[in-house]
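Design job #97: recover the sequence.
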C-alpha cells in the first residue's frame, strides 16, 4: 500500500515555481528542498541567478521539479529580458506550475516587496493566487514578534496572504539539517494540490495578459471617448459662450445705434426748430426793417394832404342833416385812410418785388417791365383807395374819386 502511494507520487511529479526578489533566497530555498546545492546561491550585490534553471529530484519519496528563476522585477542586469525569461520559466513548468512559491524575506517588507507583489498579481492574474504559497525566508534572523502577528500588522501583506487562502510557510535556511520544516512545507503543498488538482500554465498567464491588454484597450477607448465627449462639450460650451457674447455685443450695438438715432433725431429736430425760429426771426426782422425803412415823411404828407383835401370835398358836398365838423372828420378820415391804404399797397408791392421778383433773378428787370410793374402797383393803390372811399366815404362820387386818387398817389409815393 505504502509502496503504491510512493510510486504514484513519483509518477506525478510536483512542479514548484520559485518567484521573488534578488537575494530573497529563491535558490537557497531550492537547495534546502533538495537538501543539496543544486542552484547557485550566494550573497552578492548583483543578481545571482540570471536565467531560469530547473532541477528535478526525489524529495520524501516523491518527484519534485523546482524552477529557480531570476528576479523578474528588479534584476540588476541591464540586458535582462523579463518577459521572455518569464515565458521560458512557465514553459519549463510543463505541464504547469502546481505551486508558485512566492519568497519573501521575513525581516524586510519594503516598497520593493510591495511593488513585487503588485507586479506578480498584475502579471499572473488573480487566478494565480489559487496556486500561490508565500514562503518566508531568513527565519533565523532575530525578530520581535511571531510570524502570524507580523503578518496581521501589515495590511497589504495580510490582504495578499488572505487572497492566497492563508497559505504561508517559513524556512530557516541556515538550519539545513532541520528536515521537519521541509516536510511541513510539502504537506502544505499537498493540501494545495488536493484543492486545485490543476496547475498554473503559460496559457493562463497569456490569457491574463490578453485580458489585461483588452482592459487597457477598453480603458483607453473609454478615456478616448470621454476625452472626445469632454472636448466636444467644451467646444460646444465655447461656441455657446461666443454666440452669447456676440448676441450681447449685437444687442449692445443695436441699443447704441438706436440711442444714437434717437439722439441724432432729437438734435436734428432741435437744430431744425432752432433754424426755423432763427429764420422766422430773420424774416420778421427783415420785414420790420423794411417797413420801418419805407415809412418816411412823404407818405405822411400824402396821407395828410389827401385827408385834408377829402375833408374839404366832404364839407363842400355836405349832406343836409350833417354838421360841417362831422363831414370834415368823415372826409378827413376817408382821404387819410385811402392814402394810407395806397401807401400800404405800395410798400407791399415793393416788398413783393424785392422778395419774389428781384431775388428770383439776379438781372435787373427791363424798363418796360418796371413800368408795367409800377403801373400795376399804382392801380392796386388806386383800387384800395377807391374801395376805402366807397365804403368809408359813403359812396359820394367826388369823395370816392379823391380817395382813389389818394390811394394811387400813396402807392406811387411808396413805389418811388
Ligand atoms: N541568514 C540567512 N541567509 C539567507 C537565507 N536565505 C538566503 N540567504 C542568503 O542570502 C543570499 C542570497 O540568497 P539566494 O538564494 O542566492 O537569493 P536568490 O533569491 O536566489 O537571489 P538571485 O539569484 O540573485 O535572484 C545567500 O548568501 C543566502 O545564503 C536565510 O533564510 N537566512
Ligand atoms: Mg538565485
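Job complete. Output follows.
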Amino acid at each position: 500500500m505504502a509502496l503504491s502511494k510512493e510510486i504514484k507520487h513519483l509518477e506525478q511529479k510536483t512542479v514548484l515555481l520559485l518567484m521573488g526578489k534578488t537575494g530573497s533566497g529563491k535558490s537557497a530555498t531550492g537547495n534546502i528542498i533538495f537538501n543539496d546545492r543544486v542552484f547557485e546561491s550566494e550573497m552578492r550585490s548583483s543578481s545571482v541567478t540570471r536565467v531560469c534553471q530547473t532541477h528535478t529530484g526525489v524529495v520524501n519519496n516523491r518527484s519534485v521539479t523546482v524552477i529557480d528563476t531570476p528576479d523578474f522585477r528588479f534584476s540588476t542586469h541591464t540586458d535582462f529580458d523579463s518577459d521572455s525569461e518569464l515565458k521560458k520559466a512557465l514553459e519549463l513548468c510543463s505541464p504547469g506550475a502546481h505551486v508558485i512559491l512566492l519568497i519573501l524575506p521575513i525581516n524586510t517588507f519594503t516598497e520593493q516587496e510591495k511593488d513585487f507583489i503588485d507586479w506578480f498579481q498584475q502579471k499572473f492574474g488573480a487566478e494565480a493566487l489559487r496556486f500561490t504559497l508565500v514562503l518566508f525566508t531568513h527565519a533565523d534572523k532575530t525578530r520581535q514578534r511571531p510570524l502570524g502577528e507580523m503578518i496581521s500588522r501589515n495590511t497589504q501583506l495580510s490582504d495578499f496572504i488572505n487572497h492566497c487562502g492563508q497559505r504561508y510557510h517559513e524556512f530557516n535556511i541556515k538550519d539545513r539539517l532541520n528536515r521537519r520544516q521541509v516536510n511541513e512545507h510539502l504537506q502544505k503543498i499537498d493540501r494545495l494540490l488536493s484543492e486545485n488538482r490543476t496547475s498554473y500554465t503559460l496559457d493562463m498567464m497569456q490569457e491574463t495578459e490578453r485580458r489585461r491588454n483588452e482592459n487597457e484597450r477598453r480603458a483607453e477607448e473609454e478615456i478616448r471617448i470621454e476625452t472626445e465627449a469632454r472636448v466636444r462639450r467644451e467646444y460646444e460650451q465655447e461656441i455657446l459662450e461666443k454666440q452669447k457674447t456676440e448676441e450681447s455685443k449685437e444687442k449692445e450695438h443695436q441699443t447704441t445705434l438706436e440711442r444714437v438715432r434717437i439722439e441724432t433725431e432729437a438734435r436734428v429736430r432741435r437744430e431744425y426748430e432752432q433754424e426755423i425760429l432763427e429764420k422766422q426771426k430773420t424774416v420778421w426782422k427783415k420785414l420790420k426793417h423794411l417797413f420801418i425803412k419805407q415809412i418816411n415823411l412823404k407818405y405822411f404828407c400824402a396821407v395828410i394832404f389827401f385827408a385834408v383835401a377829402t375833408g374839404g370835398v366832404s364839407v363842400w358836398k355836405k349832406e343836409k342833416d350833417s354838421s360841417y365838423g362831422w363831414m370834415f372828420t368823415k372826409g378827413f378820415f376817408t382821404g387819410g385812410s385811402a392814402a394810407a391804404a395806397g401807401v400800404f399797397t405800395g410798400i407791399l408791392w415793393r416788398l413783393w418785388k424785392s422778395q419774389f421778383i428781384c431775388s428770383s433773378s439776379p438781372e435787373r428787370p427791363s424798363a418796360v417791365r418796371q413800368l408795367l410793374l409800377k403801373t400795376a402797383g399804382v392801380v392796386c393803390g388806386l383800387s384800395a383807395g377807391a374801395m376805402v372811399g366807397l365804403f368809408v366815404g359813403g359812396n359820394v362820387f367826388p369823395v370816392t374819386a379823391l380817395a382813389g386818387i389818394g390811394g394811387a398817389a400813396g402807392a406811387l409815393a411808396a413805389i418811388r
